[in-house]
Design goal:
Layout lengths: L3 E4 L3 H12 L8 E4 L8 H4 L3 E3 L2 H7 L2 E4 L6 H8 L8 E4 L6 H8 L4 E6 L9 E7 L7 H9 L2 E5 L5 H29 L3 H22 L3 H8 L5 H11 L2 H19 L2
Parallel strand pairs: 1-2, 1-4, 2-3, 4-5, 5-6, 7-8
Antiparallel strand pairs: 6-7
Helix pairs in contact: 7-8, 7-11
Length: 265
């Protein structure tokens, strides 16, 4: 694979780089990561990645450019790199709330633009990544999908749904982490050590999700397999619902969606 530039070596950018290397989609030496303060990612040099503070330099060397900067940084990054961009470049943006058309307008060149919304599980090849392309650039979706399929699951969606995808899949990691933490605390209260309770909660969550993905069944079907008449599982489920579990989760997701719609149009 040709060199890949990752513009913005923050949490997501470094997770993508490590995921690409771990899945052998690209050698670390073929990945250039940029960041203004390289001291924060200096450890990546020991893993074989190329590091630089110069976005323009990175873009010159690579056809595929993955944008992982904050929305407010995008205009400056693309203005700086304008002279190096050409119609041979493929820009893959992970930037929340910035449309493909806006990215193309900042580039001021005829470049191909695809948006990708992964989550931080990409570092271990378990991301849920949603993809969409600028009108006329749909031909690049199979190439980008192949790249991200090596880092988890992918789904091609309409661009109007990208903010919702950010909430459900990217913010969703934090939502599920909060469940695992709460389950861990419950386990501690019942007598387990913290590390034992967390292992049990995390593996159980992984198993539950894997059941749905493997069987393509509905959650309620799997719930029915676990519940028995007058049993402890249904008692726990009913108490959780009485306390508003499903309602709280839905309200939290919608609150995040309303917030993301206010951050950027």
């Amino acid at each position: 694979m040709a060199n890949i530039a990752i513009i913005g070596g923050g949490n997501l950018g470094t997770a993508i780089a490590q995921g690409l290397a771990k899945s052998k989609l690209a050698k670390p030496s073929a990945i250039i990561i940029t960041r203004r303060n390289l001291s924060k990612i200096e450890h990546l040099k020991k893993e074989g990645f190329q590091l630089t503070v110069n976005n323009d330099e990175a873009i010159k060397k690579c056809r595929t450019v993955i944008l992982c900067v904050q929305p407010k940084q995008l205009p400056g990054v693309l203005t700086e790199a304008a002279a190096s961009l050409s119609d041979k470049h493929l820009l893959i943006s992970t930037i929340t709330g910035v449309s493909t058309e806006e990215i193309a307008s900042h580039a001021k060149k005829k470049v191909s633009v695809v948006r990708a919304m992964p989550n931080t599980a990409i570092a271990i090849g378990q991301s849920m990544t949603c993809l969409c392309a600028k009108v006329g650039d749909e031909k690049h979706l199979p190439e980008v999908q192949k790249l991200f399929n090596g880092l988890g699951q992918t789904l091609i969606i309409e661009e109007r749904l990208m903010k919702a995808a950010t909430v459900l899949a990217a913010s969703g990691v934090a939502f599920f982490m909060r469940y695992v933490r709460a389950a861990t605390q419950g386990g501690i209260q019942m007598g387990f050590d913290a590390d034992e309770a967390q292992l049990m909660a995390a593996q159980t969550a992984k198993g539950a999700a894997s059941l749905l993905l493997a069987s393509e069944s509905h959650p309620e079907i799997e719930i029915d397999k676990v519940t028995t008449p007058e049993g402890c599982t249904i008692a726990g489920l009913n108490e959780m619902e009485h306390q508003g579990l499903s309602s709280a989760l839905i309200k939290g997701i919608i609150a995040s969606f309303e917030k993301i719609n206010k951050i950027r149009t």
